[in-house]
Amino acid sequence: MRPYSLQFLRADDFRQMKGADDTMTExxxxxxxxxxxxxxxxxxxxxxxxxxxxxxGSFGNAEDALExxxxxEVDLVMLDRxxxxxxxxxxxxxxxxxxxxxxxxxxxMISDEESVSRAMEAGVDGYLxxxxxxxxxxxxxxxxxxxxxxxxxxxxxxxIKLYS
Length: 164
What we know:
The model is unreliable at 1-24 (pLDDT under 50). The chain is an alpha/beta fold. The protein has one domain (11-163): Rossmann fold, CATH 3.40.50.2300. Strands 2-1-3-4-5-6 form a six-stranded parallel β-sheet, sandwiched between helices. 46% of the residues lie in helices and 18% in strands. The chain contains seven helices and six strands; from the N terminus they run αβαβαβαβαβαβα. The radius of gyration is 15 Å and the shape is globular.
């Protein structure tokens, strides 16, 4: 497994990599799945304030998110690992069945090696801790959208030790 680290990405780099200019109108359609209302609303406000994103749906549980994803094309799903009802790992597997090309970023308080490994095996493209700064989260999500696999540096070190 190749270790991944969070690299800085400027908005101009993102537009250039996507092949767009300053008049780009197509935004990344994303869904947020987070059971904590304050965090979910804060993430929605933050992501919608970035000109590259449009939060198409924001949900407090996996079942409502799946219903939305089944009927709407989404580019990226940001989800929590622990959710009421169906958890984030199962939700990831279902999203992969419904929309295999969608990117998935798991953001969680749980960052032990087994949890990260299970999430990656289920099909997430990125796994980031909730302790991450908002600017780093946004940069990481943009990297994942562009096709990179991403695990933050602290989690990468744990996995390297696990498999060494």
